[in-house]
Give the backbone structure.
Amino acid sequence: MKIRWLSGDDVASVLTMEAAVEAVRQAYVAVYRRTVQMPLRMHLPSERYGGLNLFMPSSDPDLGRTVLKALSVYGDNPARGLPAIMGVVLVFDAVDGRPLAVMDAARLTGLRTGAASGVSSQVLARPDSRVLAVIGAGAQAPFQVDAVLAVRPIEEVRLYSRTRSRAEALAAQVRQRRPDLRVVVTDSAGAAVREADIICTATNAVEPVLADADVKPGTHVSAVGSFTPAMRELPADLLARAGRVYVDQREAALEEAGEVIHALQAGVLAEDALIELGAVLAGEAEGRRDPEDVTVFKSSGLAAQDLYAAARALEAAESRGAGVEVSL
C-alpha cells in the first residue's frame, strides 16, 4: 500500500492561501450544515516539559475524507532551537478506510488558521478596508497577513509584538514579499490598531492584548490565538460593543473560546449573540449591517478546517505528483 508524504514545503507548494480560504469557507458551511463528524479537540498536557498535545479528528462523508491532526505546542521550544508547533496530519479515505497521506501539520495549521481570518474578513470587513493591524509576530502572523491580503485591498500593514525584534523580523519578511505595501512596526498595540480597518490577533495571551477604546467604528476584528478557557486576547467590553460575535462553531466556542466564556460569565454577552460564520456564508444569518459596525470573529480552530484544507492539499499534490509516495 502506498501513502503520500508531504513536507511543509510540499504543503505550501500545493495549497495557496487563496485555495486555503476557499477550503475553509467550505468547511464552515459544512460545520453549519452539520455534515461533519467532529468531536471536540482532545488536550493532553505535558506538564513536566511545559507542552500541550492536541488531537483533532474529523470526517465528512460528502467529502469522502477522514483526517486526524496530532499537534504539539511547546512554548519553550524556540530556546531549544525547535519550532513551538509541530505535528502531522493523517488523511484517510472515508469510503474504505485506506490511509492516503501524511503531511506536515504546522504548515497546514498556519494556512488554515490564516484562512479563517481571510474568510471572516471577506464576509465581515468593509470592502474598502485598507489598513491591517496584526498583534503578535509568532509563527501564525505571516499567514494572517497573507490571508487578509488575499481578500481585501490592503495598502498598509501595522505590526506589534511585545518582542519588538520579532515584529521587525516579520516586517522585513512582509516587505520582501510585498514591496508595494507600507509596513509599520509600532511601539504599542494601541498605536497599531487605532487606524486599522481590520485587526488580527494571533497570540498566546491570557489577558486582552488591545483596548476597546482603541478600536474605531467600522473595524473588523479577527481573534485566532486563544483556544482554551484560560486564554483571552479580546476584552469583554469589545465583544459587548459588537453585540454579536461570529464563531467557528457555537459548541466549540462555549467550551474553548476564552473571550466568549469570559464575556458570558461577566453578563455582557448572551449565548444567542453567538453566530456561526457558516450560517452567514450559507445566507442564513446576517453579517455586517452598517459601515460603522464593529464586527468580531472569534476562532478557536476546528478539525473541519484541517479536514477540508488537507483534502484540498492532497488533491493538488496527487494531480501534480508532489511529495513522495512511500510503502506503508
About this structure: The chain has twelve helices and 15 strands. The first helix runs from residue 8 to 14. The chain has a mean pLDDT of 95. The chain has two domains: 2-108+304-327, 116-301.
